Each structure stands twice: as structure tokens, then as C-alpha cells.
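Exercise 7b. C-alpha cells:
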């Protein structure tokens, strides 16, 4: 009989991110299906607040590795902490399946930990069930084929794709954390994280936690009905919308290729924004595609977006019609000017959601 350990790391403020709550909910569901219990393992500078946030999840035990050295995402300390928790939980026979959110921090470390303890690891898992044993699902070939996997080898480390699971959302309580000791040697801490270099939150347009994915297509840079292009206005409208809505920005290949071909179109758009077969397949709850016709962005790029809407001048745009839940046949310049004006009138944040819900 398999038993479940869920490994979570805290954020810099000691809280748990949404991906951690998704892993927690999945561990709970799997343990229920296996008619067993599950253990929560926590790593961070301090872990009590995170344990309290998960107190009502039904976990049988909370194990924690805490200390300033474990607040930083560093391979040596993270791997040592994960291994120590695995061994502490495993000593009670409670860790044949180790579930963790597929954050960059855990993706970097847990396959190595699996090797250290003689196990196997699978990444990008999007579903877990128990049908005569633990079964995992994941996608291959750019999300075109879904595989169903079972493994005989244990321990099995399973990294869940963030955004693929419902997040557990119980009340905060009071958890008793069993401390797990990891001696902090000079060897473990010889790599020092001196800082993070990242664009400021304002410049950052890729926001995996956003409610909405806004996809911009090449139509924004095409000649419009007045016989001219309006690329500067397009850039302004899109950036204004992103600032007000906090949406994440995706782009079609045609659009992102233009910026690297020296056309200097939308300067904030790079290949990192590309969605589609040769781009990303994000998992936001809502999507709005504008000026976008391509097959790949519509069929592959946002196949995991739950509610999809598109704005296109062309009423017979086959991909918008076929793949969007709602197609607005309209000029995206006019639509987004109006949406931005509504967002400005009503303030920002949740108003975007209202505007979307009202079909505006
Ligand atoms: C092997 C391969 C892999 C590929 N991978 C990807 C991929 O990963 N991602 C990807 O995106 N593409 C990919 N492509 C390219 C893809 O096939 C399309 O060529 C591309 O997506 C088209 O981009 P687009 O829809 O932005 O531009 P277009 O096809 O030029 O469409 C522009 C649209 O904008 C509309 N429009 C213009 N002005 C307005 C306005 N004012 N208001 C509203 N609508 C307006 C037009 O009606 C038109 O429908 C791939 C192609 C190949 C061959």
C-alpha cells in the first residue's frame, strides 16, 4: 500500500504559494483514495505559519526543516532538507509517493533527491489517481498526447504542474510541527544567493498566477482600415490593459518573431511570451485573444485555459470561432480602449473580472 508525503517550500514571507496548496489538495485526495494518511514536509526560513495554513488539511504529521539557511532556494540545502524529511517520514513507512509542486525550486532539486534515495522522479504531472495503485498522467509532444503512467519503483517523486490542480482552501489552524534536524555544514552553504535579478513587477509581463491570459496576435501591427499601422497605439493599449488588469501577456509566433527581426514593434514582447506548439501552454482560468488568427496559439497555446474569448475583425476566422467560447467580431483597438476606460472608471483589480463577466 502506498503512503503519501507532500513536500512544500515556503515563500520569502513564510507563506505557501497557490502551487503548494494545489499539491496539498492532491496529496489529500490521493491519500483518501488509497484509504491512508499523508504527511506534510515543510522547508523554509520559518515553517510554523505555513503549517498552520495547512493545519486543517487532514495531514497526519507535519515535519519541518527551518532556519535562515533554508529560506534561500539553493540546491545543496534544499536537497539536504528534502532528503532529511523523506527519511524522517519514511522511517515511519510514510513516504512511498512524494508529491511536490513543480516550482522551479523543487524541479531543480527533487530528481536529484530521488536518485539519492534510490527512487524515480516524474515531472510535469497533471493528474494523480489510485486505480489498483498510483496512476499519474502527463502530456507529451507539446501537450498533444496524454500519457498514463504507473511505476513499480519506490519512492516515486511526483512534481505536479502548477495550475493543473484545484488548490486546497481550508481554514488556518494550529499545527504541531516535528522539527527535522539538518546540520548546516560549510559545504552545504558554500553557494550564497546574493540577490535576484528580475524585471520590476511593472515590466514583468508573464504572470503565471494571473486570472487572465491576454494573447496578442500580429493583427495589432497590421495595416488597419484607415490604410495605416498603429503600432505605438497598440503597445500603449496593451500595456495599459496589463497594468490595470494584472493579466499575463502571451503572444502569437508571428508577433514575437517580428520584434526579434528588428522591426521594433512591441518592445515588451519576446519569445518568452509566445504561446502555442513551439511556445508555452499556460493554465490561466481565463483567456482573451486579440488580433490573433493562428492555429497553434488557439489549438495548443491555450488548450488548458478554462474560459476563452477572442476579438477579431474577421467573422470567419476559423480558429477563433472554433476554439473560443465567445468571439467578439470587433476592432480590438476600439474594444481595448473601451475596456481600459471601464477599468479606469471602476478602479483596477477585480473590476477586470466584472468587465469580462459582463461581456464588456
Ligand atoms: C511548425 C510550426 C509551429 C508553429 N508554432 C506556433 C506557435 O507555437 N505559436 C504561434 O502563435 N504560432 C505558431 N506557428 C505559426 C502559426 O501557424 C501562425 O502563422 C501564427 O500563429 C499567426 O499569428 P497571428 O494569428 O498573430 O497572425 P495573423 O495570422 O496575421 O492574424 C492576424 C489576425 O488579426 C486580425 N486583426 C487585424 N486587425 C485587427 C483589429 N484591429 N481588430 C481585431 N482583429 C484584427 C486579423 O483578422 C487576423 O485574423 C507555427 C507554425 C509552424 C509551421
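Sequence design result:
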Amino acid at each position: 500500500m502506498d503512503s503519501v508525503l507532500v513536500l512544500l517550500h515556503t515563500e520569502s514571507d513564510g507563506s505557501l504559494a497557490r502551487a503548494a496548496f494545489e499539491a496539498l489538495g492532491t496529496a489529500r485526495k490521493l491519500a483518501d483514495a488509497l484509504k491512508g494518511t499523508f504527511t506534510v514536509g515543510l522547508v523554509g526560513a520559518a515553517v510554523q505559519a505555513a503549517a498552520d495554513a495547512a493545519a486543517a488539511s487532514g495531514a497526519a504529521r507535519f515535519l519541518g526543516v527551518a532556519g535562515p539557511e533554508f529560506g534561500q532556494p539553493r540546491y545543496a540545502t534544499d536537497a539536504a532538507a528534502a532528503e532529511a524529511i523523506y527519511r524522517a517520514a519514511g522511517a515511519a513507512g510514510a513516504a512511498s509517493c512524494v508529491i511536490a509542486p513543480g516550482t522551479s525550486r523543487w524541479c531543480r532539486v527533487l530528481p536529484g533527491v530521488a536518485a539519492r534515495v534510490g527512487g524515480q522522479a516524474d515531472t510535469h504531472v497533471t493528474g494523480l489517481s489510485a486505480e489498483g495503485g498510483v496512476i499519474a498522467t502527463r502530456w507529451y509532444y507539446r501537450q498533444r498526447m496524454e500519457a498514463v503512467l504507473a511505476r513499480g519503483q519506490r519512492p516515486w517523486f511526483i512534481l505536479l504542474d502548477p495550475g493543473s490542480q484545484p488548490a486546497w482552501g481550508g481554514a488556518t489552524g494550529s499545527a504541531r510541527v516535528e522539527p527535522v534536524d539538518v546540520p548546516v555544514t560549510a559545504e552545504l552553504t558554500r553557494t550564497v544567493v546574493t540577490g535576484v535579478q528580475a524585471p520590476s513587477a511593472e515590466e514583468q509581463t508573464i504572470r503565471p498566477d494571473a486570472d487572465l491570459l491576454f494573447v496578442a496576435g500580429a493583427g495589432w501591427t497590421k495595416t488597419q482600415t484607415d490604410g495605416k499601422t498603429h503600432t505605438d497605439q497598440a503597445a500603449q493599449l496593451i500595456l495599459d490593459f496589463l497594468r490595470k488588469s494584472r493579466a499575463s501577456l502571451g503572444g502569437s509566433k508571428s508577433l514575437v518573431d517580428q520584434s526579434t527581426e528588428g522591426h521594433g514593434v512591441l518592445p515588451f514582447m519576446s519569445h518568452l511570451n509566445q504561446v502555442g506548439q513551439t511556445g508555452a501552454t499556460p493554465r490561466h482560468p481565463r483567456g482573451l485573444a486579440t488580433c490573433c488568427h493562428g492555429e497553434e496559439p488557439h489549438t495548443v497555446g491555450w488548450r488548458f485555459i478554462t474560459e476563452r474569448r477572442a476579438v477579431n475583425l474577421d467573422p470567419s476566422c476559423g480558429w477563433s470561432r472554433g476554439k473560443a467560447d465567445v468571439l467578439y467580431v470587433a476592432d480590438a483597438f476600439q474594444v481595448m480602449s473601451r475596456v481600459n476606460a471601464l477599468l479606469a472608471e471602476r478602479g483596477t483589480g477585480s473590476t477586470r473580472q466584472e468587465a469580462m463577466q459582463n461581456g464588456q
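Instructor comment: The longest helix spans residues 18-33. The pocket of flavin-adenine dinucleotide is lined by residues 217-219, 222, 224, 252-255, 274, 276-279, 291-297, 301, 311-314, 317, 331-333 (CB under 6 Å).
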